[in-house]
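#help-structures

NK: newbie question. if I give both the sequence and a SMILES, will the prediction place the ligand too? trying with zinc ion
OV: yes, paste both and it writes out the complex. here, I ran yours:
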Amino acid sequence: MPTASATLLCTVRGCGRALAASERGFACAGGHSFDRSRSGFVNLLQPQDRRSKTPGDTRAAALARRRLCEAGLERPLHERLLAALAEAGRAPLAVLDVGCGEGSALAFLAAQRPLQAHGVDLSADAIDLAARRLPEATWVVANADRGLPFADSGFDLVLTLLARRPATELRRVLRPAGTLLVAVPGPADLRELRAAAHGQAVARERLDAAAAELAPCFDLVRRERLTWRAALDRPGLDDLLASSYRGARTSERARLAGLARLEVTLERDLGWFRPRARGNRG
Ligand SMILES: C[S@@+](CC[C@H](N)C(=O)[O-])C[C@H]1O[C@@H](n2cnc3c(N)ncnc32)[C@H](O)[C@@H]1O
Ligand SMILES: [Zn+2]
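OV: that's the protein plus ligand as structure tokens.
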């Protein structure tokens, strides 16, 4: 059990009351209850929230991502996040990872310093893996596009790493002096893989677009680009295809099938955002 955590909210339509820990899971004062899974997560997804613009990861994709993280593929990003936590100040910080997937980022951070760690993802398979990895955190299945099932202003730091960015909800759950830290793929990310698949790699800048989407609720106060390289063998390439690079068409997969190994560039553009005062839409 977590030592302390941000308050979860009931997701039954029209309810929204606080959830308190109960014998089997969580319950609200309105009589709604949610069981804890065997691995310790809680599924707050309501039938009307299942439909999403983006599907949650499959178990195979989440496992592939887990293997890549265990092989150190995201280590430079995770190390940078750790430094960002130290800058964020007082411990233990209440941290929420939105679209946390199989939970490697929070697990890495929580192993290094005390945290009130919370992760939310649409994929029950990914959250199940996360809960097995770090049982002391709060792991929740929910659709971030339909709302984050947490009380207002409960978090010091919210992360969204290659994941959804529901601006109004991100601001609502952050303390007014809190930080939103966004990671998007940088223009050079996986350029060798994309060149091998398409014959060319189109460089796309994504942080500016993310900042524009978030602008009604957040100011971008700092940006940083992290670039590193990794050598992938065939199983590693298969894991990359199964997780990060799922968009590949059959013809592209066929072109990649012949590769025994590939050295790839990994690139993350990081943005630090501060919440704007509520009601300020400028
Ligand atoms: C590219 S993965 C990134 C996972 C993780 N942050 C990482 O860096 O390894 C995107 C994640 O967002 C989740 N996801 C997709 N749509 C979502 C939604 N509407 N609400 C919450 N999570 C969502 C997927 O299940 C997946 O785990
Ligand atoms: Zn309720």
